Amino acid sequence: MKPPICAVCRRRRPKATVDRLVRFSDYEPLPPRMVGHPKGLHWFCSDHVEAAKALADKPWSEARALLRES
Fold first, then answer.
1. What separation, in Å, do the N-terminal and C-terminal C-alpha atoms of the chain show?
2. Does 8 map to a domain?
3. pTM of this structure
4. What total number of domains does the chain contain?
C-alpha cells in the first residue's frame, strides 16, 4: 500500500482514513497474497477528496488530468 500522500498536491496526511482512498474505474485488485498497491486506488487530502470522488467513474489517467486542471 502506498503511503497516504495526496495524489494531486502531494501533501502528507498523518491521519489516513479509508474515506480518503478513492477507487477509480480502472481499479484492479491485487492477486491473493501479493503485496503492493492496487492500480486505480489513490489517496487524497481533505482539499481534494470530494473532487476525486466525483470523478471516480473515470479511469485514473483521465481523472488525474481533470483534477490537476482545477
1. 27
2. yes
3. 0.87
4. 1
Three-state SS sequence of 11-56: CECCCCCHHHEEEEEEEECCCCCCCCCCEEEEECCCCCHHHHHHCC
Determine the distance from the C-alpha atom of residue 58 to the mean position of all C-alpha atoms in its chain, rounded to a whole number.
12
In a domain, 20, yes or no: yes
- What tens digit of pLDDT does each residue of 7-59 get? 999 888 656 788 899 999 999 999 999 999 999 999 999 899 999 999 999 99
Contacts of 64 (CB under 8 A, 6+ apart): 7, 8
Give the strand pairing for 21-28 and 39-43.
Answer: antiparallel
